[in-house]
Amino acid sequence: MGIMEQLVNKIIRFWLLLPFLFVTIGLSGKVKYIIMPDHAEEGYTIDRYRLSTEKLYGVNKTVELFTLTFSNSKKLTDRNKLDPNTDLNLILLSVLPNLMGNKDWIEIDIDSVKNNIIVPSYLKRLFSLNTLSEFDKTYGAKTKYFDEYQVIQKIGSKYYSSKHCIIQFFAIRNRPSIFQNVFGTINIEQNPLTITQMEGIFKKRYPHEDFPPYTIGNTPYDYPSFDYLRDRKEYLSKVIKFNNGIIGYQFWTFTDWHTHDHEFEVDRGIDRFVYVPGRGIIGGSFDFYFYFHRKKLPIKYTDFLNNIKEEKVMIADDFK
Description:
Blueprint: H1 3-28, E1 32-35, E2 44-52, H2 54-57, E3 62-70, E4 88-95, E5 105-108, H3 120-129, E6 145-146, E7 149-155, E8 158-162, E9 165-172, E10 185-186, H4 195-205, H5 228-231, E11 233-241, E12 247-254, E13 272-276, E14 280-285, H6 287-292, H7 301-309, E15 314-315
Parallel strand pairs: 1-7, 9-10
Antiparallel strand pairs: 2-3, 3-4, 4-9, 5-8, 6-9, 7-8, 11-12, 12-13, 13-14, 14-15
C-alpha cells in the first residue's frame, strides 16, 4: 500500500469516527450530581456549614459548604483522635447563591438524573486527578470545577439540586515549611505569612510588577507576568482561637486575576478560607463569583480590594 493510499484511509477512518468523538465529548460535558446523605458512609466524614454573605458582600444571601474528608490509609471513625500528622484528603463542595434569581436549590425529578449521579469512589478518583496524586499522569492547570457538578439533597420526599456549585480539592499534609506545598495543599505547620507581608517580599523582588492578588479586574489583555503554574499556592496566614475554644487556621491563595470580564475566575475558588482540624473548612470567601456579579451588589471595586488586603472571610455561626 502506498503512502498516499495510507493517508486516504486514515482520513476516511477519522471522518467515520468523528460522530463518536462528538458523542463522547457531549456525554463527558453533562452535569454530574452528588447526593449528599444525612450521614457519611464508612471511610469518610461530612461537615456542612452555612455562611452569611451580607457582611462581606453586602447582599443577604447564603453560601453552603459541604466538606468530605477521607484518608487513603485509615478509616475516619473519629477524626478528633487522629494523629495530626495523618495525611488526609478533603473535597469541598460550595453551593453559591443564585444572584440572578431567588432559588439556590431547584426541585428535580431524581429519575431524570439517575444516570449522571456519581458515587464517593468517583469523587476519590477525581481527587487523585486534581491534586498531583498520581506520579504517572500529566496534569493541566484546571483543578476546580464550577457548575460541572451539583449537590442533591433530599428534603422530605423531594429532591433538590443546587443551582450553582464549585468543587475543589485539598491534600492535608501537615509538616514543616521546608517541605514543598504545591497548589491545593493545606498545611497548618507552615510559618504564617499574611498577604501584606507577602506583598512587601514580592515588590522587593519584582518592583515593577503588580502584586498578583491585587490584580482584581485585570484581563488577559493586561499581559500578566505571574508564573501561573509554578507559583500558585495556599499560604497559612494566622491561627485563630474561636470563642468556643476551637483552634482554626486561616489561609489565603497566591494567584492572580487573568480572565475576561465575561468569564468567572474559577481558578481562585475559595481564595481565602478557614480550616479547623476535625471540622473541615468552616469559612471563606468567593471573590471570583461575587466580583463577576458586582453590578448586582452594593459594594465597589475598592471594597473587593480591601477585603483581599484585610483577608476578610465569612465564618459559620457555630464559630463566631
